[in-house]
Design goal:
Number of helices of chain B: 14
Shape of chain B: globular
Strand content of chain A: 15-25%
Strand order of the largest sheet of chain A: 9-1-11-10
Number of strands of chain B: 2
Largest sheet of chain B: 2 strands, antiparallel
Shape of chain A: elongated
Largest sheet of chain A: 4 strands, mixed
Distance between the termini of chain A: 74 Å
Helix content of chain B: 55-70%
Radius of gyration of chain A: 23 Å
Order of helices and strands of chain A: HEHEEEHEEHEEHHEHEE
Oligomer: heterodimer
Strand order of the largest sheet of chain B: 1-2
Number of helices of chain A: 7
Radius of gyration of chain B: 22 Å
Number of strands of chain A: 11
Structural class of chain B: mainly alpha
């Protein structure tokens, strides 16, 4: 009887140690661990962004700040954030049934600002739309990653473990907003981290910091005192491509129906 | 890489990160090769499970072709990865929600659980015979292949046959899974309207059958000619019928998908319609539909409707299978490359520039397409596909 009990305890003890070791081992194996910062409680935040299209002047400060802060490759097809300019022509009363196709451009992602080509345009409307990762709560990119290198942190930011990414590009295909690219230096995927290294230290993102008109606002939806709650209450707010049901957390005020 | 050259290929507006294509010719090869595997296997299964006697001469040829192509199937994926050295992570720490993650397991199951096992069971008498009679290195190779099992008594072969039949029955849904799965990898991308369709797995499956049958038909005729063997007309006629039927179903499914898109005309329709009429006109309308589908369909139907001489039929089968293989390749191209030529903003288009000698260029793709034929040649030497004293028929 004693013998059996001792055996049981020994086996149980071994199993316990092994399970613990396996757990620690698994932590090493599994991706999906956001970088830690002192005094930051990941469970107390739920990050997103509010963008006021009415306030964006297309200066490109945000694009430049983002590229500088996050060491984004300089080529004109790698962006964590970019600015699009829309020109939507008026409805022609002689042909009201004709479909209005907006003219959209984003030269070098808006990095150098925009030439004022529509200055003398007498009709139509022009506006700027800053774009970035929508930090989706039901993100298709997270869903499709074959190894879990792309993951959602508990505070609602979609991040990439670059030491784990295979560079298969499935996530690039899966993102409806075109927010991901392959970094030509590492051959792994890259995207907006919402300046995770800054926001976990109590700072705002580089793009928000650099925006001269306050068109971009980092928001924490878990903070009851965050101005986002007033922003959502008092504005007609829309997200991009709501039909994709991605749970996007970048909220736009003044988003025109022509924006894709 | 010259940025201005890449930007030059843009028409209208693309999201900046979309300008460079992510999935290249190598990813076109991946569904193409996998489809050939699944199709060839399903053809072999028809003989084994349903008992289509006329297909007997191609049974082993189809299995070995499936194996040769299956061995090459993961190579384009591996070559395409940004960090190929990490590909094993897909096996060790798969993300179960990912459609792509499970492919490795489906592939391994199909290779080890189905195809190799079935071939081994079928060839066991020969392997044992050669292991006992061949001298030198080849004798050793056959001894290894025998896996220590030298019992070829009537009872043992009867068991082999039963197990083999069971594996084949299991293999049919596995082949469906293998290629339906590839279709799902594309069909489940909701961000891309050119791909996102529940029809995708079934269209991929039937196009796989079409391409696989065409491959075996072509190989059977070419190998027979090369070896100076008489072509069994009953066999090629049967394959012609199977090809025709599979093709009709495939074309009907693709037609249904097309009609659905045109009639629904959702927000992506104008963009995709423009694409098909411009950048994809040659590869989609001319190569895939006219040359790769309608023409072989017409030729194969002609054989059924009109009396044609044996030589004429051989010519028709040869031409039809080549056209079919080209047409299905074009279909894969149009899916993979076509799906990346337009912006997800539906406001513009980009251009695919195919390099020649770099990692994702034309040269490695040509090598990857030739490689299975070399493997097949090696397999033929090791496991003769035609000489089968006990089961051969004229």
């Amino acid at each position: 009887m004693d013998e059996t009990r001792r055996d049981l305890l020994a086996t149980g003890g071994k199993l316990l140690i092994l399970t613990g070791a396996a757990g620690i081992g698994l932590d090493f194996v599994l991706a999906g661990e956001p970088e830690k910062a002192p005094n930051y409680d990941v469970m107390k935040h739920w990050w997103g962004m509010a963008i006021d299209i009415e306030k964006c002047i297309g200066c490109g400060n945000c694009v430049r700040a983002c590229k500088a802060e996050n060491d984004v490759p300089k080529e004109p097809f790698y962006f964590r954030t970019w600015v699009e300019r829309y020109y939507v022509p008026d409805v022609d009363p002689r042909e009201p049934h004709a479909e209005m196709q907006p003219k959209v451009d984003s030269p070098n992602g808006g990095y150098d600002g925009f030439d004022d080509v529509y200055r003398h345009e007498k009709s139509g409307k022009t506006f700027f739309v800053p774009k970035m990762c929508n930090q989706c709560a039901h993100s298709p990119c997270v869903q499709v990653c074959p190894v879990g290198a792309t993951f959602e942190s508990p505070d609602g930011v979609v991040l990439v473990d670059k030491s784990y990414c295979l560079g298969c590009r499935y996530c690039v295909q899966a993102c409806p907003y075109g927010c991901r690219f392959i970094d030509p230096r590492t051959h792994t995927v890259d995207k907006c981290t919402l300046c995770y290294h800054r926001i976990t230290k109590g700072l705002t993102t580089a793009c928000c910091e650099a925006c001269p008109t306050g068109a971009r606002m980092l928001v924490d939806l878990k903070n009851p005192d965050d101005p986002i709650h007033e922003f959502l209450r008092s504005n007609k707010v829309q997200i991009l491509k709501p039909q994709m049901a991605t749970g996007a957390k970048v909220y736009y005020n003044g988003l025109d129906g022509s924006v894709r | 890489m010259d940025p201005s050259a890449i930007l030059h290929g843009v028409q209208g507006f693309m999201y900046p990160n979309e300008i460079e294509l992510q999935w290249s010719l190598l990813i076109v090869l991946y569904p193409y090769i996998t489809g050939l595997v699944a199709g060839a296997f399903i053809l072999a299964s028809l003989e084994r499970v349903i008992g289509v006697e006329a297909l007997k001469p191609t049974y082993r040829l189809a299995l070995l072709s499936a194996l040769a192509f299956l061995l090459v199937a993961p190579l384009p994926l591996q070559l395409h990865l940004g960090r190929p050295e990490r590909s094993f992570e897909m096996y060790f720490t798969p993300h179960t929600a990912s459609a792509m993650a499970m492919f490795g397991f489906v592939y391994l199951w199909y290779l080890l659980g189905v195809l190799l096992f079935e071939i081994w069971l079928d060839y066991r008498p020969e392997i044992v015979h050669f292991a006992k009679t061949k001298p030198g290195i080849m004798g050793t190779v056959y001894k290894i292949l025998a896996l220590g099992s030298y019992n070829v008594s009537e009872r043992a072969l009867w068991i082999d046959d039963k197990v083999g039949r069971f594996v084949t029955i299991l293999g049919i849904p596995s082949a469906f899974l293998l290629h339906g799965y590839v279709g799902f990898i594309f069909g489940s991308v909701k961000a891309n309207p050119w791909w996102s369709s529940p029809m995708m797995p079934i269209v991929f499956l039937f196009s796989a059958m079409v391409s696989g049958v065409a491959l075996v038909l072509l190989l059977y005729m070419v190998v027979s000619w090369a070896k100076g063997r008489v072509i069994d007309m009953r066999c090629v006629d049967t394959m012609g019928v199977i090809l025709l039927v599979a093709f009709i179903i495939d074309f009907a499914l693709e037609g249904l998908d097309l009609i659905h898109r045109v009639y629904e005309a959702d927000e992506s329709f104008k963009t995709l319609d423009f694409l098909v009429h411009t950048k994809l006109y040659f590869s989609h309308i001319i190569v895939q539909i006219v040359l790769g589908t309608l023409l072989p369909l017409g030729l194969l139907a002609l054989v059924r409707l009109v009396r044609i001489t044996e030589a004429g039929r051989k010519g028709i089968y040869l031409l039809s299978s080549v056209l079919t293989l080209v047409g299905i390749f074009a279909m894969r191209w149009n899916v993979v490359i076509g799906g990346q030529l337009f912006s997800k903003s539906f406001l513009g288009y980009t251009t695919y520039k195919l390099d020649f000698a770099n990692r994702e260029g034309l040269l490695p793709s040509i090598i990857l397409m030739v490689l299975p034929f070399f493997i097949l040649w090696g397999l033929f030497r090791l496991l003769p596909p035609f000489e089968r004293p006990s089961r051969t028929e004229g």
